[in-house]
Amino acid sequence: MDSSSSVKIVSKSFVKPKTLPEESKQPYYLSPWDYAMLSVQYIQKGLLFHKPPLDSIDTLLEKLKDSLAVTLVHFYPLAGRLSSLTTEKPKSYSVFVDCNDSPGAGFIYATSDLCIKDIVGAKYVPSIVQSFFDHHKAVNHDGHTMSLLSVQVTELVDGIFIGLSMNHAMGDGTAFWKFFTAWSEIFQGQESNQNDDLCLKNPPVLKRYIPEGYGPLFSLPYSHPDEFIRTYESPILKERMFCFSSETIRMLKTRVNQICGTTSISSFQSLTAVIWRCITRARRLPLDRETSCRVAADNRGRMYPPLHKDYFGNCLSALRTAAKAGELLENDLGFAALKVHQAVAEHTSEKVSQMIDQWLKSPYIYHIDRLFEPMSVMMGSSPRFNKYGCEFGLGKGVTLRSGYAHKFDGKVSAYPGREGGGSIDLEVCLVPEFMEALESDEEFMSLVSL
After folding, report:
1. What SS3 state is found at 394?
2. Res. 307: pLDDT tops 60
3. Molecular function terms in GO for this entry (predicted)?
4. Do 30 and 133 fall within a single domain?
5. pLDDT at 340 over 80
6. When you count CB atoms within 10 A of the terminal residue's CB, does the N or C end of the chain come out lower?
7. Last residue of a domain, one of 227, 257, 280
8. Which pLDDT value is given to residue 14?
9. Which residues contact 55 (CB under 8 A, 6 or more apart)?
10. pTM surpassing 0.85?
11. Which of 240, 220, 22 is nearest to 125 (CA)?
12. How remote is the C-alpha of 445 from its chain's centroid?
């Protein structure tokens, strides 16, 4: 790849919902989970496709815009903007979505002289991939002046990259991929003339979760965003995709459960234990140094009563477990796996309720630099999302990539492997010294499909 390669913006526009429901005239309120996200960054994920024979890219762009306008009918708050109400005495800062005073969702067309092999064939994810996404380094509070959803379609020499940037105060990873999947479904339906009625198989549940007896408008104990918004700069990182075949994942799960004398430890918990243990070894931590591991957990089914599986919004926790480095490395893999499994098993509806009650008594905002301890591991995203099901008439994606957002030393994002069948790809971010050591770790690399 030529170091002079670049991404050039050709056009910028906005897309509004094809029609707007009556309820869009009212403020769209946010839940406590949404408020907590105001100072973190947009979710940025995208898919790379082979470029089909095209008379003109304009035809594809128009189809993408048309289907986006229809999709936004079902997800109309994403076409809005954040708005706030503030008071000085007492200090109060409330945020909601104004679905009327907005130009819509962003839509960008860009070009690049890169080829698919420059992305897929690179050992480390090239930093230019960050240019495939809009809202670079933006925090969610910026949704007051920036679109809450922005699409960037980047035309490569032989590929098409569709990158989505979605305001994290509007939804979590489950919500993000629900939108991506719905957009693809409507695109495919329009292609086959089967979607004139604008229907979705599983429409989103837009009504926000508001704890009984509270809201619908919450307030933070501040009068100005400078009091609670902080930008985050990632350190210099190496970012690499590691692939684990379905056979390896099955073998790993079987081995871990045999070691632990159980059948309850999942494939993902087993893989999380491996990555936690091996990154800890790569960091060469003192044996008495505590290291933590967090796993993103969807709370929809854990609440009482449970939220609908198609609930659109934030509804997640970062479950934490910890151990001394010496414990992780001197014990077998089962030790780490049981720690991870226990953190998940103990995350009950009561724990979720306690978390909500804590926020209601003392509202807080997440800050990346304070949320995760140094020398920790954070397992984000999920291999359960049907990410490769988003095709847009372009066939199955070649690979998945993410933008700048939420990258730090020890951040790991899990994707379904392209081959399917339970295979998993891990996007691992480490400082260069630790990445080099991980690549030399026999336990880890013996599981990786090269």
Report:
1. coil
2. yes
3. acyltransferase activity, transferring groups other than amino-acyl groups
4. yes
5. yes
6. C
7. 227
8. 98
9. none
10. yes
11. 240
12. 26
On whether both 222 and 243 belong to a single domain, the answer is no
pLDDT band at 54 (very low <50, low <70, confident <90, very high): confident
CATH of the domain at 76: 3.30.559.10
Residue 249 pLDDT level (bands cut at 50, 70, 90): very high
- 8 A C-beta contact, residue 190 and residue 392: no
For residue 419, tell me if it sits in a domain.
Answer: yes
321 token code pair: 């477990």
Give the residue carrying structure tokens 């994942």: 249
Is residue 328 predicted with pLDDT exceeding 90? yes
Q: 293 pairs with which residues across the strands?
A: 321, 377
Which long-range contacts (C-beta less than 8 Å, at least 24 apart) are formed by 184-188? 184/389, 184/390, 184/391, 184/392, 186/67, 186/70, 186/71, 187/63, 187/64, 187/67, 187/392, 187/393, 188/391, 188/392, 188/393
- One domain for residues 219 and 177: yes
Residue 242 lies in a domain: yes
The answer to whether residues 216 and 296 belong to one domain is: no
pLDDT digit string, tens, across residues 129-142: 999 999 999 999 99
Strand locations in 156-269 (E) = 159-166, 238-244
Residues 217 and 276 in one domain: no
Q: Domain boundary at 202, 227, 252, which?
A: 227
Amino acid at 420: G
Range of the domain at 278: 238-445
Within 10 Å of residue 254's Cβ, how many Cβ atoms? 13
Residues 58 and 160 in one domain: yes
Name the amino acid, one letter, at 340: V
Write out the two tokens for 331. Answer: 């014990």
Domain membership of residue 423 (yes or no) is: yes
For residue 194, what pLDDT band results from cuts at 50, 70 and 90? low
Q: How confident is the model at residue 147 (pLDDT cuts 50, 70, 90)?
A: very high
Number of domains in the chain: 2
Quote the strand ranges of 304-449, DSSP E. 316-324, 377-381, 399-402, 411-416, 424-430
pLDDT confidence band for 214 (50 / 70 / 90): very high
Same domain, 207 and 249: no
At position 215, the amino acid (one-letter code) is: G
**450 is a domain residue:** no
Contacts of 248 (CB under 8 A, 6+ apart): 447, 449
